[in-house]
Amino acid sequence: MKVFEKPTSFYPRFERKGGPHKETTHYCPGCGHGNVHKMIAEAMDDLGIRERTVFVSPVGCSVFGYYYFDCGNIQAAHGRAPAVATGIKRANPDSIVISYQGDGDLAAIGTAETLHAANRGENITVFFVNNAIYGMTGGQMAPTTMIGQKTATTPRGRIETEHGNPIRMAEIISTLPAAGYVERVAIGTSKHIMKARKAIRKALTNQVENRGYSFVEILSVCPTGWKMDSPDARDWLLNEMTQVFPLGVYKDDAGERENEWYRPVEPFVPEKVDAYFSAGNFEEADEPIKLDKSLQCKFAGFGGQGILTLGLFMAQVGMRGKLHASWIPSYGPEMRGGTANCSVNLSEARIGTPLVDRPNVLVVMNQPSLEAFEKDVVDGGTILIDSGIVESKPDGDRLNCILIPATKIADEVGTPKVANVVMLGALCAATGAFELDFVEETLRAVVKKRNLVDMNITALKRGYDFVRNGG
Amino acid sequence: MSRQFIKGNDAIIVGALQAGCRAYYGYPITPASEIAHAAALHFPALGGTFIQAESEIAAINMVYGTAGMGIRTMTASSSPGFSLKQEGLSYLAGAELPCVVVNVVRGGPGLGNIAPEQGDYFQVTKGGGHGNYRLIALAPNCAQEMCDLTVLGFDLADKYRNPVCLMADGFTGQMMEPVAVPAAKAVPFDHTEWCVRGDAATHKNLVSSIFLESEDLEAHNLKLDAKYKEIEKNEVRYEEYLCDDADLIIVAYGILSRIVYSTIDQARAAGKKVGLLRPITLWPYPSKIIAEYSERDVQFLSVELSTGQMVEDVKLAVEGRAPVHFYGRCGGMVPGGEELLAEYDKILEGVKS
Q1: Are residues B136 and B268 both part of a single domain?
Q2: Per-residue pLDDT band at B189 (split at 50, 70, 90)
Q3: CATH number (domain holding residue B252)
Q4: Mean pLDDT of B304-311
């Protein structure tokens, strides 16, 4: 007779189970997990999803779900099943993913994963078996343990003022807009079983039809943990637990959501990725630029002056000239003291440290930066200063000092924002390392705001001319 | 050759996508957040998945789910977040799932600060999670390697079915350098035999790290151990510079290897025979080459952004045959070249022992 047949979504023999008894489950007599497993397997059969299904086993008594379900199985860390399920479903939205969890797993250690998977509306199905106790670890208090219920860790019974209250997950999850279907059922009488079976089927159907997140809480029994015989356990479930955990549908928006929660992904197509990233490639010079000496530059000023961008332009000029180039913003203790700064290295040889602590070129655009970094410049090094902003003068005997009213020139060009590029022009003229045309071409390639390109070029030339013509 | 000028943190994502990584799961933390920013931009643009997870723990478990499908996936974090991922890493190693996890190391312990450090060396190389397992640990020192070692990381992860950690630091993450983007190639691994994809071909498979019977778990551990020995045999990577005739070999990785590199020529110009040995794989560690050098009249100096962690591996490799010294800064303090040169002098002149 058909009713006694095992669902085909169960293995005919439980070969993964240790020991000699391959026909029976590892669950204690009277345990509710076997019933719930069977209802899920039947629904998988009826929906024809066995081969598409991935069953995520939690930590707890149902850790061995993979003994039984003839589908893809993956075992998750305690409480993490909804996150693991997310990683599966998102990578293959055509898989059917079941997160099967007990009360400790779902409502204590995995509360965050539970709520956030629901809140993202993951198109998965969560079956929450609530039996008000930790079974596997030996009958400790669960987050759903009832007030007054004695457990290994509440030997005097659960007390509200000491342990808090049984937590109602179906109610909590039903407050989340992205959760599509939330129902609490029970295993108890045959009538309850019928309802549970229907809810389980519906929750899986929702997923097949891409209606989003479904959550079915199943009140179940643990005669061993509760220290009761099976009939008493069933009575306690129906008479006591359902008082605190009322049965019923808490939310059902899934009906209006067909295919709305399908999140498509594309397979890896190497040519597509190549094309995508090659758009950022730089056109470099045919011949490498020759440098008289490596440039170790420091650029410093107020935040907002574009000082980091100035350094970046310089580094990009070098890179376009086939030099070794590095740029690094200030980081760590030197960030304090009113200077934003960056280090740039340009060299024909491989660059060691990207950090410049003894620059041979220093560009400063505010007073604190001059005070902070002048002493670090090597003897005979070049120092460029925005003389409109920086008041004091550096040591002209030791250093090659170049003063440029960069911000003033930039104002004349049209905006103080291009003062940094005035400094770049001045720097090119002062070091003689780069042809003006080459720098201009580089700027045209790297300035992101197209409408600012011409203004930048003008600023560059003005800075360059200022130094070339002796200020 | 065409290159782009990009940040080390961005180079990781470029490398990951070129390598065929399809899903990124992350949680914001300085100084690794830029990796997530780049992932959020580029993964969906290429038909991949990006999720900002509710926690570091959720992120690594999402990685576990996708990795269990045999699909390339990754996450990135920084020290405190990497600590939270240890549970997941142990499960990934136990279930033999391939993935790449980036740790842009910052100052610790505890909340520490956001400055560069290398204080997570023990955690990365000795296993911060529970059980007998190893992470393959790669230590880039430039933007190009942030990209290339990410690609290599995915290959090694797939080859050995093991999580790989890219151990970077704030400097290598923040700095911009030219990067030649490697060509994307089809992933040369087929995981149908073990992975769980939610299809007919894999529906009999099981991804798990539970072995209830002691005999089975011991056998599993021995299998992992044999794999780790194979990795130790095949995958050691390092770079050396002027070690052949050196009286003093500096051992340094990551950003510090760059600072040390700059000092070597300066020391040589002053007539001091100093060389650099840079581990690129922190596990497996380049013990063999260090042991070989220790057979001659030489001293070693481990320079680290820590109070002395990698130095223990140098000592284990040297086994007492040569003096092993240590110099470190931490908390975000980074030694300059002159500071290091003074340390070399102390050792070479016999002041430091």
Answers
A1: no
A2: very high
A3: 3.40.50.920
A4: 98
First vs last C-alpha separation in chain A? 103
The count of domains in chain B is: 2
d(CA B65, CA B116): 31
The token duo for B245 is: 């005739």
Chain A contact present for B61, CB below 8 A: yes
* Distance from C-alpha of B209 to C-alpha of B214, rounded to nearest angstrom: 13
* pLDDT tens digits, B245-303: 999 999 999 999 999 999 999 999 999 999 999 999 999 999 999 999 999 999 999 99
Instruction: Verify that B268 and B200 share a domain, yes or no.
Output: no
**Correct CATH for A2-256 of 3.40.50.970, 3.90.930.60, 3.40.50.1370, 3.30.230.10:** 3.40.50.970
Tokens of A149: 């219920």
For A434, half-sphere exposure in the C-beta direction (CA atoms, 13 angstrom radius) is 32
From the centroid of its chain, how far is CA A137? 32
Whether the upstream peptide bond of residue A166 has omega within 30° of 0, thus cis, is: no
Task: State how far the alpha carbon of A101 is from the alpha carbons of A9, A53, A80, A218, A248, in Å.
Answer: 19, 16, 10, 10, 19
Return the residue in A266, A355, A443, A448 with the most chain B beta carbons within 10 A, the one to mutate for interface testing: A355
Q: Are B165 and B267 found together in one domain?
A: no
Domain encompassing residue B247: 239-348
Q: How far apart are CA B353 and CA B347, in angstroms?
A: 7
> Has residue B300 been placed in a domain?
yes
Q: Residue B186: count other Cβ atoms within 10 Å of its Cβ.
A: 9
Residue A265 and residue A243: Cα distance in Å, rounded?
A: 44
Please check whether residues B227 and B254 belong to one and the same domain.
Answer: no
Using a CB–CB cutoff of 8 Å, tell me whether A97 touches chain B: yes
Whether residue B353 is contained in a domain is answered as no
Residue of A nearest to B74 (CA): A87
User: What SS3 state is found at B99?
Assistant: strand
d(CA A127, CA A100): 5
Question: Is B181 found in the same domain as B252?
Answer: no
A 272-291 → B contacts, CB under 8 A: 272-274, 276-278, 280-284
Residues B246 and B229 in one domain: no
Identify whether the C-beta of residue B100 lies closer than 8 Å to the C-beta of residue B21.
yes
**Sequence ranges of the domains in chain A:** 2-256, 295-468
Report the side by side order of strands in the sheet with B324-328.
Answer: B238-241, B274-279, B248-251, B299-304, B324-328
- Are A354 and B175 within 8 A, CB to CB? yes
Class of domain A295-468: alpha beta
Q: Could you give the residue ranges of the DSSP H alpha helices within A129-237?
A: 160-163, 169-173, 190-208, 223-226, 230-236
Contact B258 A273 (CB under 8 A): no
Angstroms from A338 CA to nearest CA on chain B: 18
Inter-chain contact B262–A333, Cβ cutoff 8 Å? no
| CB contacts < 8 A (A, B) | 257
In a shared domain, residues B287 and B174:
no
For A94, which residue in chain B has the nearest alpha carbon? Answer: B198
B250 contacts chain A (CB < 8 A): no
For A159-186, the pLDDT digits (tens) are: 999 999 999 999 999 999 999 999 999 9
E-strand stretches of A352-435:
361-364, 382-386, 400-404
Which of B48, B58, B261 comes nearest A113 by C-beta? B58
- Measured between beta carbons, the chain A residues lying within 8 angstroms of B20 are 268, 270, 273
Same domain, residue pair B219 and B338: no
B242 touches chain A (CB under 8 A): no
Does A140 touch chain B if contact means CB atoms closer than 8 Å?
no
Q: In this structure, is residue B119 part of a structural domain? A: yes
Asked if residue A81 has pLDDT above 60, the reply is yes
Average pLDDT, chain A: 94
